[in-house]
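Predict structure. Chain length: 283.
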Amino acid sequence: MAVTRIAAVAAHFGSDIARALDKITGIIDRLAADGVDLLVLPDATLGGYIGDLRNPDPATGPEAIDPDGPEIRLLCRLAGAMTVCVGYAEHGDGARYNAAVCVTGDGVLGRHRKAHQPAGEHLAYAAGDRFTAFDTPVGRLGMLIDYDKTFPESARALALDGARTIAALSAWPASVTDRASRMPNDRQSRLFDLYDQARAAENQVVLASSNQTGITGSLRFLGQAKIVGPGGDILAKTWSKGGLAVTDIDVDAEVERARRVLRHLAERRVDAYHNLMSDKGRF
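Prediction complete.
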């Protein structure tokens, strides 16, 4: 039995990258002492997130950093034996991307650029164009950012590429159009949990979901970090304030147990999904 200790973070990270790195140092030091193997930090941990989804100002957006620059190299040194996923604004190909990187002390293991963009986010970031899994010391893993997990195809692409764990990094706010007086009643709060559980259950994988907390500009972030098992069951969860969701799980054993009778990936009927690759659906 190979048990993995997974931790997903709910915390506030603002625009000060140096301060964020100091905060990450403390988190990793503490969790390394607790035997954590996989740490999933939120989207926009380095540099913060935009403050307005409907009309962001590209000129005042998060600072974009080099994907191979000193900040990422420092993250590798900090990670040591731990596998760490962290979100940041990436400068690459002449554009700024909402990105995530997975590292250990040995270097960068995998990267992801957010592909799906809600509201006016395209004014602040360029879009990524692929979902790929990669090998890590805690098994084959893939990453999603924010709105990516709204789309079943995103997590499915990672699962088909062999991911048994998905790290879903978010800066997910409460509703910007229909805000509830209490966070648990907010429509986006419900959807955030629903998507986490559905993506895990439909692909029979483990999902570690992190999120920002607090307020940036006009956005109020939900928190609600969690670990979800391959049956869609929430194994550990935080609420709207900062905290850690931590669980010990034998990922391979639990995935195989979930797939013992019903094997969702193997039992797909791809011949019946005639319009899945088309953007000309009736909507």
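Summary: The chain has a mean pLDDT of 96.
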